[in-house]
Design goal:
Radius of gyration: 23 Å
CATH class of the domain at 238-441: Alpha Beta
Oligomer: single chain
Distance between the termini: 18 Å
Shape: globular
Strand order of the largest sheet: 13-10-12-11-17-18-15-20
Number of helices: 16
Bound molecules: flavin-adenine dinucleotide
Strand content: 15-25%
CATH topology of the domain at 238-441: Vanillyl-alcohol Oxidase, Chain A, domain 3
Helix content: 25-40%
Amino acid sequence: MSASSLHDPRGPNPRKAALEAFIAALADLRPSRDPALLEARSRDYYWYSPILKQRLDPCRGEVLVRAASEAEVIRVAAACARYRLPLTVRGGGTGNYGQCVPLEGGVILDITALDQVLEIRPGSVRVQAGALIMDIERAVRSSALVPGGQELLMYPSTRNTATIGGFIGGGYGGAGSVRNGILKDPGNVTRVRVVTVEDPPRIIELRDADIQKVHHAYGTNGIMTELDLALNPAIDWVHHIALFNDYRSALAFGVAATEACARANPLRGSTAPQPGPGPSLDAFEITAVDQRFSPFYAEAFGDRFPAHRDAVFAMVNPRDLEGWRALMRRFGGEESMAFTEEQLLVQGLVPAFECAWNHTTLMALRKDPSWTNLQTVYAWPLDIDLVMRQMQRYGDEVYMHHEFGRDSHGFVVFALPLVAFFDRDRIYQIIAEHEAEGCLVFDNHVYTIESGGMKSIDSAQIDFKKIADPHGLMNPGKTEGWLAEYVQP
Ligand SMILES: Cc1cc2nc3c(=O)[nH]c(=O)nc-3n(C[C@H](O)[C@H](O)[C@H](O)COP(=O)(O)OP(=O)(O)OC[C@H]3O[C@@H](n4cnc5c(N)ncnc54)[C@H](O)[C@@H]3O)c2cc1C
């Protein structure tokens, strides 16, 4: 029996009939077909890429429904399965590659009303998947359970607008990764509760390594409703800017500071070799941006990031600030800012984590939308001469931005260079040149999981998809090698 024959075999438009049946079944949740709302909720930040913008701009969901409890999520999942409708789960909608753009229309499930911090414990927190990361951070910092409060191990630079479910579904790491590794590393996320898309749905709890089955799966294999995350004792990080006369020195400082951070924080469960002797300095974020970014930051920082000075933005443990300054001076650096987050906000300044990761590109795009970017990874130890050669080769076509991080295998130098968009061929020529020079490229101009960086189909995720989404309704088109059974429009 085909999917469409399940409800209206004679109808001229089976998708329309399925949508009407869905809306009637969930009338009390007030599903919306408002075109303006559907347009807004069918977008994320794919427009960073002119290539994706052209492909994804026309995509729209056909009905938006908001669930405020796991019971309501279950009802939505059951109705999607019953009527064979494509389903796209949406958190904050800050993903970069059309992760929550409904390629095949259908239902958009807004998860942001599942926003509760359910239980704070020493060393961990249980949250609903739609909770804003910022709200979780506030709750664990202010809880009196542990003297001085606790903090999340990492968050994306979209901390203030992204949900925790969206971070696990589409993210990688971010601020905190130089200290605590990436989301994927053991012990950082310890439990995920998933609702399957079948009629009736089931609830599956994934723990520890099994969490990889849904991590970075772009919402293609089950609806996360609850998560357990590890916590550390809170630190009132100092948001710091160090200025240098050239990008080489900024990068050299970034490398030394990252090694110092690794000495201060051996990664749990990591077998990676430790750096040799040197200073031990605790930091939460280390980002280098070349001086040509300075005009994009002018409103935020003025003379704190002047033209002709390259910058390293960091979040430093106040305990280690003097050591940080000494290391900075060894590389010819000069401090232009050192404030806690509270002090920054009072003065209308921007936190260091919002000068990092994909926020750096956003700062540029707000001023000049003709830019795009790439996502590349450099081998460790960082070959600074290679970066210099690339800067020489590309001139004003590419502005450099490097993120220093770690994962359970060792150090990671991630780059998000800003690239002047000429056309598709030129982007792929620049990608090929980076790959030829040993850089790994996570292609951010494609929308499938596999083309974007996984490079091959993740069989554990596909096996889990067979269990959690047996009809292939979840975010169809985002994972390759999968035939869905949804009713055609
Ligand atoms: C300016 C900017 C900066 C960024 N910085 C970073 C960064 O530092 N690090 C980083 O990793 N990423 C970064 N990103 C990407 C993105 O912001 C993060 O991954 C963010 O955590 C996504 O959260 P969200 O709530 O917006 O997710 P959404 O965009 O709503 O969803 C992301 C994906 O997860 C799926 N999903 C959402 N909720 C659920 C759920 N409950 N169950 C199942 N699937 C679900 C969606 O279907 C979608 O495929 C950045 C993006 C921008 C635009």
